[in-house]
Amino acid sequence: MLDTPKNRPSLPPEIARRRTFAIISHPDAGKTTLTEKFLLFGGAIQMAGQVRAKGEARRTRSDFMQMEKDRGISVSASAMSFDFDGHRFNLVDTPGHSDFSEDTYRTLTAVDAAIMVIDGAKGVESQTRKLFEVCRLRDLPILTFCNKMDREARDTFEIIDEIQENLAIDVTPASWPIGQGREFLGCYDLLHDRLELMDRADRNRVAESIRIEGLDDPRLAEHVPAELLEKLREELDMARGLLPVFDREAVLNGSMTPIWFGSAINSFGVQELMRGMAEYGPPPQMLPTDKRPVGPEEETVTGFVFKVQANMDPKHRDRVAFLRLASGHFLRGMKLTHVRAGKPMAISNPVLFLASDRELTEEAWAGDIIGIPNHGQLRIGDTLTEGEALRFTGIPSFAPELLRTCRAGDPMKAKHLEKALTQFAEEGAAKVFKPTFGSGFIVGVVGALQFEVLASRIELEYGLPVRFEASQFTSARWVVGAKAKVEAFVAANKAHIATDHDGDMVYLTRLQWDIDRAIRDYPDVQLTATKEMMV
Hints:
Largest sheet: 8 strands, antiparallel
Number of strands: 30
Distance between the termini: 36 Å
Strand order of the largest sheet: 25-22-24-23-27-28-26-29
Shape: globular
Helix content: 25-40%
Structural class: alpha+beta
C-alpha cells in the first residue's frame, strides 16, 4: 500500500486495493489488444478476442458497437472491472481515434492513473501527445508500455529520449528489451533483477517466464545468445549511468514514468505491467468539488457521471450512466440525492461491467465505476451524494470544430429525429444546436468520423435514415454574461443564435471575424469555447 500523508487517514483495505486507470494511445499502437490481455490475465476471459457466450466467437471484448467491429477502432469508452494479484482493477478503455478525443478527456477525469501505450517503431505520435497533455493538467501518474517489440522497433535509448524530450517527463526503465524484431527474446526486469523470456508458441496462453537472479547469473548464457547477452550488459550499464533511478514519489506525482517493453499480441510484458500498476499505481485519490475536495475514505457516498452510453442493448432502449464513486461504501438499493434535480434516487440495479457483459452488483467502493441504467434522468457531469449538495468540477465540454445541418430522410419523422439527437447530445456524443431561426438542427462534432458514427447509430437504433449537409456556420461559442447584456447581444445577432440541449445560449459563427467583431462590440459578453459540465 502507498504511504499516505501524515494528515490523511489511511484508506480502508477495500479502497486501498483499488486501481482505477485508463489506457491511452495513438490509434493502432495496440491499446485494444493490451486491454484484451489485461482481461485475460485478470481471469475475466478465457481467450483474448473471444467471447465466452455463443454468437460471434471472435468478437473483440471491449469493442461492442457495430461500427467499431467493422473498422477495428474503438470509439466508445467502456469500463471493465476484474481482480488481479489481490487488487481490484477498474480499467477504463478510451477511444483511440482522435475524432473522439472529447470523450477521452472526460474519461480521464474519472481515473487516478493512466497507461500510455507507444508503438516501438513509431514512438510518440500526435494523439499520444494530446492525451498526455490532459494527464499532465491533472498530474496523473503515468506508466508507459512500449509495444510491438517483436517487430522492427527503434533503438531503446532513442525511444526513451523521444519520450523525455517530447513529453518533458523523466523516464526510468522498468524492463529492458533483449533483441528486437525477429530476434526479440524477452526483457530483463530491472525492478526485480530477473530475466523474462517470451513464449511465442501460443499467443493466448499465459506465457511462462524463466527467472534468473541478477545479470551475473551463469544460467543467463543458457538462454541468451552470447552477442545479445554482451549487448544487454553493455546497454544496462549505460542505462544505469544515464537514466534516472526509479522513484516511487516522482511516479505518483506525475513527474516520472516507468517504461516496460513487450508485445501485447504475444502476451509478453503484460503481466509485468499489471504488477507495476498494482505495486506502484495510486489507490483512489481526492477529487475536487465546488465546495471542498472529497477524500475516498469519507463514509458518505459521493460520485459523478462521466459518461452516458445509450442503447448498449439495442433490444431495450436503455441508457447507462457510468458513475465514478469518489467516496464511501455503496450498497445496492441505496437512496442517493441527484444534486442537479434536487431529488432522491433509489439505485436498485447498479451494474459492474465486463466489456459488453454486465452483472448486478451488491456493493461498490470509492474508486469503482458502476453503471446505473436510467431513462434520461442522469447526464454527464451529474453528481450523486448521500445528501450533501456537492458538484464535482473539471468535466469539460468543448466547442465543436465541425458543424453540419442534420435532416431526416422522411420529413414526417422530424420529431423522432429530435429525440434521437437529444439522446446523443446528453450522451456527449455530439453537440446539438437548435437555431432560433429556421428549421432543422445543427450538429457539431470534433472529428468528421463522428458524423458517420452518428448516422449509422441513428439508423441502427431508431430506424431513421438521416443526412448531414453542409452548414453556413463553422464554429460555435457559448454566450455568458449578465442577463441584460446577453439579451442585447441576442437581439442584435438573431440569425446567429441557437440553444444547446441544456437550453444554454450559443453563438454560431461563420468566420473568426464574427467572433472578433462580437468581442469588440459587446465587451461585457463572454464567448467561451468550453463549458463546464456541471449542471
